[in-house]
Amino acid sequence: MEEIKKVVNGKDIRCGARCNYCKFTLSSTGGGGTGHLLRHVKSCRHKALAASSSTQSHLQFDSNGRVTTFVYSADVARTELCRLIARLDLPLNIGEQPAWEDYIRIAFNPNYTHVSRQTTTRDLENLFELKKSVVSDLLTHASCVCLTSDIWSNNAKEDYLSVVFHFVTEDWELETCIVGKRLIDCSHSGVNIAECIHHVIFEFGMNSKVLSITLDNASANSTVVDKLSPLILSYFGTSLLHQCCACNIINLIVKSGLKRIKSYLEDFKVAISFLNSSNQRVAAFKTFCLSVGKRPRKFGLDMDVRWNAT
């Protein structure tokens, strides 16, 4: 119930109450009882309909700290499920798994209905097109872009060429947009890589806005720049078009230095491989550390693709 008051002799006097469900007004004076109000609340048909509705409302704080009403939306839930799948590389059928349904229904929303793999696939495609249009609109306001590209392998042993645009907005904020993830199932030659990169640049209409292209120092990338230079109208010529990746240069310097102590590194690698080859050896090493008062730790082999792992 919501109190209804009127001013009498300069004072606020309660004269009635309004039902929050059906908006019916009942009399309720300051000295009167509230029994008739309670009976109306119990018998209010609109309240019963609201209670049986599948729409759930909760209170939440907005960005300004104000209390607002949160209403569960199945469309929003499906969109966020797609974002979760993309960010964590989850299977497309997770939305219809019984364990997932139990988790959502018990912890968050008892009215949750499962989402099939086919529906999730369509939602992912729609979300991709929506995000692509947002990126396209954002790039229309960029006077020039700096491009970076590299090839990565996923868990399915497939190679993808990534193309990333970096630019400064009108508010002087740095924006980074991943505009291309192209499957490159052919030879990683400079011609093939240049063709994929140019297709992405042409698709987003950035032919005349490329300020620089940053690539690693592989020999094929020199061919990439030679093939791309006549195809794109650089922002101010091609003198500064090709930029070498500084991290890759540091990587090459470190690897060159590690070659000087390769014989020592091989001894360490053999020892670590021997230690990790069985659980009994790991347990024996832990016992030894404890006996000499040292903290037990685990050793992992370095990774060649991470230059600072060694």
UniProtKB/TrEMBL annotation:
This is BED-type domain-containing protein. Its main location: nucleus. InterPro entries: RNaseH-like_sf, ZnF_BED_domain_contain. The keyword Nucleus applies. One of its GO terms (molecular function) is zinc ion binding. It is found in: Nucleus. The keyword Zinc-finger applies. GO terms for cellular component: nucleus. Keywords: Metal-binding, Nucleus, Zinc, Zinc-finger.
